[in-house]
Amino acid sequence: MELDKDSLQFVFGSTIRALHKATALEFDKSGLEISPEQYHLLKIIASKEDSIQAELAEIMQLDKSGIMRHIDQMEARGFVQRVNDAQDRRKKYIVLTESGIQKLDNCKIALDKMANTILKGVSDAELLIFKQVLTKLKENAGG
């Protein structure tokens, strides 16, 4: 069977892998010591006031044990902390620390630098259309 390199799935998948790899390399070059997944997780935690592990797993579309590994690693590095719920001691919120906020800011700087490279030759109008098409594809796929 011949590989169809023009198929939407191939082009999209290879683009996502390339962007993920470029992000990881930029984070490494910048000395950030964080994975792209952990960066996205920090962004989600920063945007939600009361983040719990189950919700984070659902948003990231990862299993709970995968999210727990990321949270454990980030907690060990001081980027997040677990805080007990006042009414339900079994429930723990994941919150950013000052170090986590600083890490997010540093990642944003690295990503802005990377954007200048990866968006070279792409107009604002093309980028807007691309985002709209991606949104439609996601909705049509049931996401």
UniProtKB/TrEMBL annotation:
Q: Where is the HTH marR-type domain?
A: 1-139
Question: Which segments of the protein form a coiled coil according to its record?
Answer: none
Q: Which Pfam families match?
A: MarR
Q: Which keywords has UniProt assigned to this entry?
A: DNA-binding, Transcription, Transcription regulation
User: Which Gene3D superfamilies does this one have?
Assistant: Winged helix-like DNA-binding domain superfamily/Winged helix DNA-binding domain (1.10.10.10)
Which InterPro entries does the UniProt entry name for this protein? HTH_MarR-typ (IPR000835), WH-like_DNA-bd_sf (IPR036388), WH_DNA-bd_sf (IPR036390)
Query: What PANTHER family does the record point to?
Result: TRANSCRIPTIONAL REGULATOR, MARR (PTHR42756), TRANSCRIPTIONAL REPRESSOR OF EMRAB OPERON (PTHR42756:SF1)
What's the name of the protein? Answer: Transcriptional regulator, MarR family
